[in-house]
Design brief:
about 75% helix
Length: about 475
């Protein structure tokens, strides 16, 4: 009788410490832990990929592809080939996403395969150069399509375009700070709208194709770089920890997305050529608007709105995914700790999302966007090539590492070689801008040794940089 209360007390202590935890209490304890939750299903995953790949390019880029290919038939072949090469790269990232279960995308993969310095340089290049320039460009495209119809045929005021761009960026940042669920649902809605815009182009084009057949002469002249009009945005890999059943949904979403985009892009180009001759397409500054004026005159004002919403989807996808790279970088000790923190009420990586905002606004005001994109594009391809090369190196070094999805080695080798070839071709054709892009990337090396590797410094300098 005297031992019974002590036995009950012991049982209670074990219950609290977790040895005899009731399932309901255990579920409640896990729910109270602040972490990024798995809220992205297959539909949201597909929407994030399609929504970031399909921006304003398909409504404008056909002019550049036709100009560099020299014929209608060859330009369609270029679009199909670029889809195949994009699929190769996407499959490589599907393997990486299922082999390494942490979020962070390229940063995580470089850290795990080639070491901390390449990973830090990827982080450095993305957040101070590449990502702000890319987001600024997309937001300017959005505002241009919103504003210019009100001022046509005159040019819209530059100040107004920049102001609308800042408002668009502010809206997207606020949305991603507020809720992961709202951001993903918005992405699904915007992806549906942009795919509807492509359908609006495809259907009239194929109706016209039934009654009209054009014969074009074929000349062989194609720029290799034009094969890559698809945007390599492996945004899904940045949010691996938030995907439901990632081993299944990451490869499936990537394959479905890339096949869908390839088919739609080729069909849209076929539709363009049924309504416009090659010379008319080359004279058009906005191919989709010219197409609508002929095929859908009643919807001529709707197309710019749809293109603007397409740009907004690309902007939202970027602001959702890329901060996860910074979040993981801070968690790994390569960035200030505050950026690894999560808002306890919203469950969003709020500091990491907010960091991009002032950089993008500053770049919009400064206006040196396109020059910076030129500098950093070759560095982007170099880091993509390093990532897939690291995957091959990791396969060789750790053959027993679990790989739920494994891409054939020949595909990974072909894609890696093509990426390095693009970098080499850029260096050959434009050594000045390519060289400056390399210099921008290498500016992160001293920062890495003064911050991440500051334990190697003398005590006095270490103390100063630790405080900094």
């Amino acid at each position: 009788a005297t031992l019974l209360p002590n036995l009950q007390l012991l049982t209670t202590c074990q219950h609290i410490t977790g040895n005899l935890v009731h399932p309901n209490l255990k579920e409640k304890a896990e729910d109270e832990v602040v972490h990024l939750r798995r809220e992205i299903g297959l539909l949201s995953a597909v929407s994030f990929i399609v929504g970031t790949v399909v921006g304003s390019g398909i409504f404008i880029a056909p002019k550049g592809v036709l100009m560099n290919s020299g014929s209608v038939g060859l330009s369609l072949l270029v679009w199909a080939l670029c889809g195949v090469l994009s699929m190769f790269g996407a499959l490589c990232f599907a393997e990486l996403g299922t082999s390494f279960t942490k979020s962070g995308g390229q940063y995580t993969y470089l850290l795990e395969t080639l070491g901390p310095l390449p990973a830090f340089l990827r982080l450095w290049m993305t957040f101070f150069f590449t990502r702000p320039a890319s987001s600024s460009t997309v937001s300017l495209a959005f505002s241009s399509y919103v504003v210019e119809p009100f001022f046509a045929p005159c040019a819209a005021p530059t100040v107004l375009i920049k102001l609308i761009s800042v408002l668009a960026v502010t809206f997207v940042v606020a949305l991603n700070c507020w809720s992961v669920t709202m951001a993903s649902r918005t992405q699904v809605a915007l992806t549906f709208i942009k795919m509807s815009a492509l359908v609006l182009i495809i259907v009239p084009g194929f109706i016209a194709l039934i009654y009209k057949k054009q014969n074009q002469n074929t000349t062989i002249h194609v720029s290799v770089l034009e094969l890559f009009f698809f945007s390599f945005r492996f945004n899904l890999n940045y949010v691996t920890e938030e995907i439901i059943n990632p081993n299944r949904n990451i490869p499936l979403a990537i394959i479905l997305s890339m096949v869908t985009v390839t088919i739609f892009y080729v069909l849209v180009n076929v539709a363009y050529y049924t309504m416009m001759t090659p010379s008319e397409l080359l004279m058009s500054d906005a191919v989709a608007v010219t197409f609508a004026s002929r095929a859908l005159p009643g919807l001529i004002l709707v197309i710019p709105i749809l293109v603007a919403l397409s740009c907004l989807g690309t902007l939202n996808g970027g602001f959702f995914a890329i901060p996860r790279m910074l979040f993981v970088g801070a968690r790994e000790g390569q960035w200030p700790t505050i950026f690894s923190m999560i808002n306890i009420h919203r469950r969003t990586p709020l500091p990491a999302v907010l960091l991009q905002y002032p950089l993008v606004v500053l770049m919009l005001i400064n206006g040196e966007i396109y020059q910076l994109i030129t500098f950093s594009s070759s560095a982007e391809w170099f880091f993509i090539a390093l990532t897939t090369l690291g995957m091959l190196v990791h396969r060789y070094r750790f053959p027993l590492h679990p790989r739920p999805f494994k891409v054939p080695a020949v595909i990974a080798v072909i894609f890696t070689v093509v990426c390095f070839f693009i970098v080499g071709l850029s260096l050959y054709s434009d050594p000045w801008n390519t060289g400056r892009g390399c210099i921008l990337a290498l500016t992160g090396v001293p920062v890495y040794y003064l911050t991440v590797q500051r334990f190697r410094l003398p005590n006095r300098l270490r103390h100063i940089f630790s405080k900094l």
